[in-house]
TrEMBL record:
<comment type="similarity">
    <text>Belongs to the NARF family.</text>
</comment>
<dbReference type="GO" id="GO:0005638">
    <property type="term" value="C:lamin filament"/>
</dbReference>
<dbReference type="GO" id="GO:0005521">
    <property type="term" value="F:lamin binding"/>
</dbReference>
<dbReference type="GO" id="GO:0005654">
    <property type="term" value="C:nucleoplasm"/>
</dbReference>
<feature type="region of interest" description="Disordered">
    <location>
        <begin position="1"/>
        <end position="38"/>
    </location>
</feature>
<dbReference type="InterPro" id="IPR004108">
    <property type="entry name" value="Fe_hydrogenase_lsu_C"/>
</dbReference>
<keyword id="KW-0597">Phosphoprotein</keyword>
<feature type="compositionally biased region" description="Basic and acidic residues">
    <location>
        <begin position="1"/>
        <end position="23"/>
    </location>
</feature>
<dbReference type="Pfam" id="PF02256">
    <property type="entry name" value="Fe_hyd_SSU"/>
</dbReference>
<protein>
    <recommendedName>
        <fullName>Nuclear prelamin A recognition factor</fullName>
    </recommendedName>
</protein>
<comment type="subunit">
    <text>Interacts with LMNA and binds to the farnesylated C-terminal domain.</text>
</comment>
<feature type="region of interest" description="Disordered">
    <location>
        <begin position="437"/>
        <end position="456"/>
    </location>
</feature>
<dbReference type="GO" id="GO:0005730">
    <property type="term" value="C:nucleolus"/>
</dbReference>
<dbReference type="InterPro" id="IPR003149">
    <property type="entry name" value="Fe_hydrogenase_ssu"/>
</dbReference>
<feature type="domain" description="Iron hydrogenase small subunit">
    <location>
        <begin position="390"/>
        <end position="446"/>
    </location>
</feature>
<keyword id="KW-0539">Nucleus</keyword>
<dbReference type="InterPro" id="IPR050340">
    <property type="entry name" value="Cytosolic_Fe-S_CAF"/>
</dbReference>
Amino acid sequence: MKCEHCTRKECSKKTKTDDRENASVEVPSPAQESGKEKGEFHKLADAKIFLSDCLACDSCVSAEEGVQVAQQNAKDFFRVLNLNKKCDASERKVLAVSVCPQSLPYFAAKFSLSVTDASRRLCGFLKSLGVHYVFDTAVAADLSVLESQKEFVRRFHRHSEQEPALPMLASACPGWVRYAERVLGHPVTPHLCTARSPQQIMGSLVKDYFARRQALSPDKIFHVIVAPCYDRKLEALQEDVPWASPGLRGADCVLTSGEIAQMMEQSDLSVRDAALDTLFGDAREEGRRHEGTNSDGYLAPIFRHAAKELFNEDVGEVTYRALRNRDFQEVTLEKGGEVLLRFAAAYGFRNIQNVVLKLKKGKFPYHFVEVLACAGGCLNGRGQAQTEDGRADKALLREMRGIYATVPVRAPESSARVQDLYREWLDGADSPRARETLHTAHQGPERPADGRDIKW
Ligand code: SF4
């Protein structure tokens, strides 16, 4: 029996399912199934497949990648911390940790704190271990969203029936991108937005911008990302830093919020709270998030920008209309009875299937779709919103949603630092350096390989 959420006929997973959209399912070890050393990815979740993992399952993850993903764990983090304590000053690594905004509501809920106090507690804990800098990834998310806005407008102008540049599909979720690249291939990959994800941009900011400011060689920095899901560990493997020596990775290790919380619970350190650092060496802007419900918030900022740039329309409140379910929502801009823009948010595998089916049939009504692998968005990432037995923790998710809603919303354009970064770091907003640093080319076979061809 295959996973009830996946309709791929080739999917050979033996599963037990529960009744949830984001079911966790018991599987035989992939090595048992295939007779090969592959599928280490699943072992990270105690041999369970979650839906987001399903989008990057062992048919998409090579044996070598599986090993490298599994190596990103607390042990690796402590290895570097301990080496720093023992080795000569000249050999020490500078430890920098960057925290995703969707992780902070988890720490706030876990320790019954506000988001601000939770970030101070987390920062104090990491520094007490020997971490030198703790950042958040907000400025990297600003750059990612701004580049996505510009790309959408470019695609809209370029789009024609002969050479369709639309729809544009969001590319910040590594589970979805990996699935699109490795399984779907053409015709889906040309529609993926080329803007790099916040994690990838943060890697370049730390290993390039920050390293230069601190007069450090990038390989002296050990950069850890704290993220809501395991898929970001996989993403870290593909993050070479543009303009740096080949093979230099932007993130050396990704730890989930749950892995960090476990360290905090097991620690008997008396911790003094501390403020987050900034890449710029000054006071941090107040905690903020992009408009949107549970994700990095691409849909609303791109929608507002496109409405203004393309139709000179100022959008007030962005109104979401639930379609098939609350994880498939639509936003439209209408004038004189005509729909000028039609955007959608499609979260979770079930809704992704529908998007892909429509795209393949050539009957696609949307200009942009914010696609996320996890039903419920990033707050529901499997690295934080699950019970000990691997089920979705609905009560925790509800609490995190409430907490996330209290974080002030700021438009990416309003960040004082972003324009400085374009000017000082990237030689201008439209320079070749900005394009290479902030954009990527998505891989993908022209047609899915035979063995991976999908029969929906
Ligand atoms: S939706 Fe968010 S949490 Fe889930 S796999 Fe994608 S990036 Fe990770």
